[in-house]
Structure formats: C-alpha cells, structure tokens
C-alpha cells in the first residue's frame, strides 16, 4: 500500500509540476500544443509585451491569446501540496492529530476530530489520498476534453479560412478574372 501511494504521489507530482520553474503549478495555463506551464513562467517566455514564441517543450508556436487557464491542474497542485504536508506530518493545531482527511466543501485537510466536529460534520470528508486519485482522474478527463475542443476549433478555423485561401489561389493563377 505504501508503495502504491508513493507511485501515485510521484505521478501526481509529475503531472502538477511546471517544466519551466520545476515547481508545483501556480495558475497553470494550457498551450494549443497541449503543454501546461505556470501562467507567470510562460508570461516570462512570451515577453513584455507578449509575442508569438516557441513552446518551451516542443518548440511549436505559442500565440499569447491562445492560452487557456486550467483550474483543475491548479487544484491537483494544491492537493499535492496538501499531501506533502500530510507526509511531513502536519498536525491539527486544535487537536494535535494528523491532518490526513480532505474536506471537500472546505477544500482543506482536517483531522479525525475536526471531521466529527460541528464545522465539518455535515461535509463530505474522505482520505486525502482518495481525493488526490479522483483529482488526477478528473484532470485527465479535462485534458482529453480540452484536446478534443482544440481539434474542433482548429477544424472550424480551417473551414472558416478556406474561402479566402481559394480566392487567393484563383487570384494568383487568374489575375485577369477579378
């Protein structure tokens, strides 16, 4: 079980780490080529004022206006931070017990006594590791949908630009026709 959690933690850490700063994401954004970076890190690459630049991972062109925020990836990074605190042994300041549970409504780690107390009694509380697993699965689904949306957008843009391309071809081959 401990090995499985370590592997899960490593996978989450990999998914939630910016390849520019090598830290957990803060306000992550997704490029059109499908790579994720901290918003501030990518802003540094795009310059001031932002300009078209190569993706730091694959060198594909990155247009400043095409970046999309990925809140779910930011949530995964928060969970990884929370898991790091659990592994390093943070204790509940009120009860001194390990903060090994995750309160979904408050998006916070709580101890067993807090879970049963009036503040969290009516909330859904579960093991932090379980919440991290579910967030990872959610992140994968979001990235798959994002990829599908990007494909549809690219197809629509191609169809939108097709008449102009055809017009330019006709104009180039038959300048007298216009």
UniProtKB/TrEMBL annotation:
Residues 18-59 form the RING-type domain. It holds the Pfam family zf-B_box. Residues 87-128 form the B box-type domain. PROSITE patterns: ZF_BBOX, ZF_RING_1, ZF_RING_2. Transmembrane segments: none annotated. InterPro entries: TRIM/RBCC, Znf-RING_euk, Znf_B-box, Znf_RING, Znf_RING/FYVE/PHD, Znf_RING_CS. One of its GO terms (molecular function) is zinc ion binding. SMART domains: BBOX (SM00336), RING (SM00184). Keywords: Metal-binding, Zinc, Zinc-finger. This is Uncharacterized protein. The lineage of its organism: Eukaryota, Metazoa, Chordata, Craniata, Vertebrata.
């Amino acid at each position: 079980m401990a090995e499985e959690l370590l592997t899960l933690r490593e996978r989450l850490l990999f998914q939630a780490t910016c390849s520019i700063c090598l830290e957990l994401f803060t306000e992550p954004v997704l490029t059109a080529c499908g790579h994720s970076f901290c918003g501030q890190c990518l802003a540094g690459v795009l310059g001031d004022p932002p300009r078209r630049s190569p993706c730091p991972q694959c060198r594909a062109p990155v247009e400043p206006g095409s970046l999309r925020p990925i809140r779910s990836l930011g949530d995964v990074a928060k969970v990884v931070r929370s898991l790091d605190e659990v592994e390093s042994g943070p204790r509940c300041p009120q009860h001194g017990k390990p903060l090994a549970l995750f309160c979904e409504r408050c998006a916070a780690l709580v101890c067993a006594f807090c879970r049963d107390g009036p503040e969290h009694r009516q909330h859904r509380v579960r093991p932090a590791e379980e919440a991290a697993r579910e967030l990872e699965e959610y992140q994968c689904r979001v990235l798959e949908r994002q990829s599908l949306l990007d494909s549809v957008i690219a197809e629509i843009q191609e169809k939108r630009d097709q008449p102009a391309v055809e017009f330019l071809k006709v104009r180039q081959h038959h300048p007298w026709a216009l």
